Each structure stands twice: as C-alpha cells, then as structure tokens.
Amino acid sequence: MEALQVPRLKMELTRREFRLGAPIFIRLFKESAELEVWLERAGKFERFRTYPVCAFSGNLGPKLAQGDLQSPEGFYFVGPRQMNPWSRFHLSFNLGFPNAYDRHHGRTGSHLMVHGDCVSIGCYAMTDAIIEEIYTLASAALRQGQPFFRVHVFPFRMDAMRMAAADQSQWLDFWRNLKEGYDWFERSGRPPDVRVQRGRYVFRSD
Asked: Has domain 3-184 been given CATH number 2.40.50.1020?
C-alpha cells in the first residue's frame, strides 16, 4: 500500500512537515466516534489527523465475550503480521484482542479489527477511503523500522468532568485504570509502555 493510492496524503504530510514512514500512534474514542492518528516528530507525537469512525458495535465499556457484539476498550499493539491488505473489508489491521489484560479477566473474542466499509459486529469500521490513509501511514511506519504501533481505545475523552459524570458506572474502576494511560500520553506526548500486573494495566516510559 503506497501513498499514491491516496494522492493528497503525501502532499499533506509534506505541507505539515511530517514524514511518510514516521512512527505512528493511534487513539480511538467511542463516545465521539473518532480515531486520532499521531505521528512522531522531533521526539514527540503530534496529531496528524482526526477521522470519524463510521461504525462500531455495542455500548461504552469493554468487550467481554465472543459474540457479544461489543467493540473492545484497552491498550493494544499491532505488528506487521496483523496487517491485512486482502481484507474483505478493503484493508484492515487486527487489534490483537484479547490482550494480556483481557485474558486475565477471562474475556474472549477474536478478529477484532480496524477496517474499511461501514459495518461492524465488534470492529471499528472507518470507510474504505479513510482506512486507505490510515493503512498507508501505518504500513509505511512498520516498513521503516517501527516494530509495532500502539492503539489505545477509550470509551470517551477522559477529562475530569467526563470521568465525574461516569462515577456510577459499573466500569468506573476499569476506566480509572485506562485514564492512567490516557493521562500519561496527555502529559508527555509519548505513549507509555503498557504491561499487565495483578490484573491491572501498569505504565512506564517506553
């Protein structure tokens, strides 16, 4: 997948002093149905573009079980073998659900993707035109040496006011744990290294 397939992309990268092949980081927000693409520049990640999510499944909260038609939340990473240029949804990459946290909590499911088209039974569907841009940026970064890229999936933008509004949710403890990773990136401009210890996400400098 080359930038020639999205001809305005390379021009936009150049105009804004980004580089095709720069390390990439992705954040997804369910409530606002947005996917952010961040690219590394001068040692920090800068937001390149925010795309609308065309479709996802279920409600705010994590995916629990195969077939629950719920899109996942959490911290995921995508390597070269998770990229699929032959997807029946145009192009896709596999989020890697269940991750170590999901497995610890007995959550099941498979083939949870970010892909083209505008249909979802648990995936995040972006439309064909938008997935072409995202896939181009991600595959270029992997080809140029980024071993994997991180995808952080949140229920909403985790500012203090929105968290306070969620204080009666059954998922509040889970979301507070997600907020630790959210705040790390907001402070530092770099996504943290994410591990799982005793059933919780823990964070440290990458």
From this structure: no
